[in-house]
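Posting this for the archive.
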Amino acid sequence: MKLIASLAAFLFSSPQDPSNKTTVINFDDILTHGGLGHIPSPYSHLTFSSFNVFNPRDPALEGWISENDLNCAVSPPNALIGSRYSSDLSPSSGPASFKIANATSMIEEGLNPYFELLTFYLKPLDMPPPETTIYITGYTYARDEPLVWHVDFPAGYHLPLLVKMQEFSSDTWSFLYAVEIFADFGEDRLDWEFSIDNLELQFFKIPKDKLSPGRFGQRVMKQEEGK
């Protein structure tokens, strides 16, 4: 599978191409009210589900979050809270996720409708119980099965962990159209909230000598048309 992914990267877009766009999404330009806010869609070409923006140092949140979670916003003021539940506490359609919002608009901007997940900061909120695990799943057309990686957190408070996807998972998380993240604990796999910040992604420009996106980009478009 690694060989296939490497060949695909060579054929459809070169990660070493300096024209490709690497961006760090820090969510700091999103306004919050009472320390909380919603993520507009699209936002940096993505749609976020079961995530909310929060400013951990907003006075309105004092007493609602642990003082040990003030470090969630690695680049203040904002970070994201993720869960299996939507903001009104009703069950959501799935785990917290972000995905390509509009393939057509990206192509019009000269970008292929997929991305590579490079790094981000991650931590469980408050003091997680023993055996708390956070799972990351990446959906890509470059392989038959999704990319999967997880990290276990011992009981106690934690500093934000800089997750380096390629180094930690021994896979390149590229040609992605969606990523899911969730945390659970115990035999019943109960939900646990977590935070992320400084999401580093790479987007790939469509070569000037091509009139349409690569094979994987075309598949994302077909999926979007079939919704």
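The chain has a mean pLDDT of 85. Helices lie at 2-12, 103-108, 165-169, 215-225.
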